[in-house]
């Protein structure tokens, strides 16, 4: 059977037990239609980048499944009808990754990003920038003495 990964966001005003109950509910929907949940993770309440249905936060849940396409379609249909589910993302994968997801790993356990010197720019070194402040001696029209131009508010000759 094909392998899928699902992430769904439920409303922030649910309790943690209710949010985890949604995971169990949708797991039974898959099981009733011939699929199975290989692993599930409850990521907790997270702040979203933008409001969804007037909510700034949501309960995130992650499922790794082994199910036929019809079972996944039925689960997505029921998630779309459920009033507590705000967003759904389903991805078909070739194989499930081992261990916990990146969201559940601590920052120090994640892979090191390595040296960022190859990102362009100044190559990690700061160069001296030319100074444009001060007397503006490089442009005579911007000097302090503007004898040929009147200042603002002064009457013209």
Rounded average pLDDT: 80
Summing up helix and strand content along with how strands pair, one would put the structural category as alpha+beta
Strand content: 25-35%
The residue ranges in which pLDDT falls below 50 over 5 or more consecutive positions are none
Largest sheet: 4 strands, antiparallel
Structure commentary:
With about 160 residues, the chain is an alpha+beta fold. The chain has a domain at about 5-95: Alpha-Beta Plaits (2-Layer Sandwich). The chain is about 20% helix and about 30% strand. The protein is built from 2 helices and 4 strands. It has a 4-stranded antiparallel sheet, with helices on one face. The mean pLDDT is about 80.
Concise structural overview:
This protein is an alpha+beta fold.
Write the layout of secondary structure elements.
Layout: E1 3-11, H1 16-32, E2 36-52, E3 55-66, H2 69-81, E4 85-93
Antiparallel strand pairs: 1-3, 1-4, 2-3
Descriptive keywords:
alpha+beta; Alpha-Beta Plaits
């Amino acid at each position: 059977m094909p392998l899928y990964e699902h992430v769904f966001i439920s409303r922030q005003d649910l309790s943690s037990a209710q949010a985890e109950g949604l995971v169990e509910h949708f797991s039974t929907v898959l099981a009733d239609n011939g699929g199975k949940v290989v692993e599930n993770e409850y990521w907790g309440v997270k702040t979203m980048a933008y409001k969804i249905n007037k909510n700034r936060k949501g309960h995130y849940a992650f499922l790794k499944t082994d199910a036929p396409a019809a079972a996944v379609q039925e689960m997505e249909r029921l998630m779309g009808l459920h009033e507590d589910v705000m967003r759904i993302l389903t991805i078909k994968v070739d194989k499930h990754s081992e261990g916990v997801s990146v969201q559940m790993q601590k920052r120090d356990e994640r892979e090191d990003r390595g040296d960022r010197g190859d990102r362009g720019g100044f190559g990690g070194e700061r160069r001296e920038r030319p100074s444009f402040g001060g007397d503006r001696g490089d442009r005579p029209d911007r000097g302090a003495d503007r004898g040929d131009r009147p200042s603002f508010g002064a009457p013209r000759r």
